[in-house]
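Hello, quick one for you while I still have it in my head. No rush at all, and the record is pasted right below.
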Amino acid sequence: MPPRVDGAGKNGSMASNESGPTPRRDFEVSLTKPSETIDVAEWAGSIPQVGGTPPHVRVGRRWINLLWSIPIAVVLVVVLVAVAKGLRNMPSVAHFVHRYPGTIAPNPHPAYLGLPSWLRWQHFFNLFFMAFIIRSGVQILADHPRLYWTRHSTPGREWLRFQKPVPPDPMWTAKQDSVKLPGQVGLPGIRHSIGLARWWHFTFDVLFLLNGAVFYALLFATPQWQRIVPTTWKVFPSAGSVALQYLSLQWPYNHGWVAYNGLQLISYFVTVFVAAPLALLTGLGQSPAVSNRLTPISHHLSSQVARSIHFLVLCWFLVFIFMHTAMVWTTGLLTNLNHITLGNDTSSWAGFGLYVVWMAIVVAAWIAATPFTLRHPRVVQRVGATVTGPVQGLFEHIDPNPRQYTEADISPHFWLNGRMPDSDEFRRLVDTRFADYRLHVYGLVAHPRDFTLDELRSMPHQEQITQHFCIQGWSGVAKWGGVPMRDLLALVEPAADARYVVFYSFGEGSDGGTYYDVHPLELMYRELSLLALEMNGEPLPVAHGAPIRLRNEVELGFKQVKWIRAIEVVAEFRHIGGGHGGYNEDHEFFGYRQAI
């Protein structure tokens, strides 16, 4: 049992076994008010707007610049065209093409001739939504421009990067590793803007999923499903025949009004029924709440594997969009555009005109998105929180599994992040090995008090091996040891109207002022909610948050406050800082609920 400690004195003063009564400290006064717009020069603590490198892929121990793939692809296409032309002159191949011309027209087919109005509108919405999903997704990737095939984000072990190798500096942080993107490529394009990019990404993800649900329902409620679902094995030789005809530059006849050819059918099927669901599943696979609960799956399909597959799905969509657009323009532009815009099988210019209007809307929105985000970032945050906040709140109710990992799973490298405390007070504490450290716990509690490190160490000890999920995309497994939050709260006894717990840090945020974050009180009673004093069996390193850091395994890493100075229990947090639930929520427009 922990030693008994006296409760509060008069006027809410705190008491400690060793230090006696001390005046209550209001840490809210050290918080800074956030800006409502973005000055790129001062963004994220004036982080330099440094770009990355061309994409490199690792083959064994060598890194290969993927820009070489462009001339290699050109040469390969030329060779394939020459080979295909030669094959077309062979009688057996000519017979194969004659037997499988490419399009397998259904019989009867009049029930689904052409494209109905609902499908044409869905096509436009998918185009619009996907443009912003891809653009914001690339921005998210730029915040940790490395991809891995293991759960460990170990520098040098990534399989793809578009950043220089990690320098030997032991204090190199994940934030420093992020890269800037051109303003009209990423969204919003500036370095370390992942909070805003995620709002764009998740908002349009939700819209895309809703549109997709309607699409699936209408697709199978009508004969249109036969356009993109193979119903015979002949689709595969037909697809091969079409590929050969394209490569030989003797293209097959376009039957798009009646049915798609075998290659189109397979590509549509993969896009609609494989790539799109896989994007959803791998996106959820990067969630701390999901991954730390669905242990049989996530232990093998780790968050980093999910992130890599998510990226490959993005590549599939980009290739599909490029090839799809190229085929529309080169196989009968006016007819094809009339199919998808007006729903008729003519060669008039009307469909082209409507197509131009569609594309003008997409391009205008694309161009306006970055300046709008820089001028109205809080609007982007609020809209995103309104659309996706309730969904993320649902994931907070997932209780992580405490027995997912063993010591053999501990990561060899755990990235640093956050701005190290540099105050005279903290330096003195480090010099004395935190002998004079006091954890102040106050607010809506029956027994506000100070805790020394010795008192905390004498409380019931808990160890847990869990995976850390940074909002930037990297992850790492570590063993944490310390005091369960539920035991600490049992000593101070939160009031009936208490709903949130505020953690204040010795460290400052990137724009100055105390770093803090707010967590729902109910999550602090979870088995894996911990005040960590140890990391991997050793005293918690200063670089990783000594003397104490928070572990709440249902949330992303920026909410795991390091260098904890005080804990306040409150009824609501609108009056704290900028009122958004944390420092990064205030200043860099992250989300308060971040379980995905």
About this structure: The radius of gyration is 28 Å. The domain at 10-30+401-587 is CATH 3.90.420.10 (Sulfite Oxidase; Chain A, domain 2).
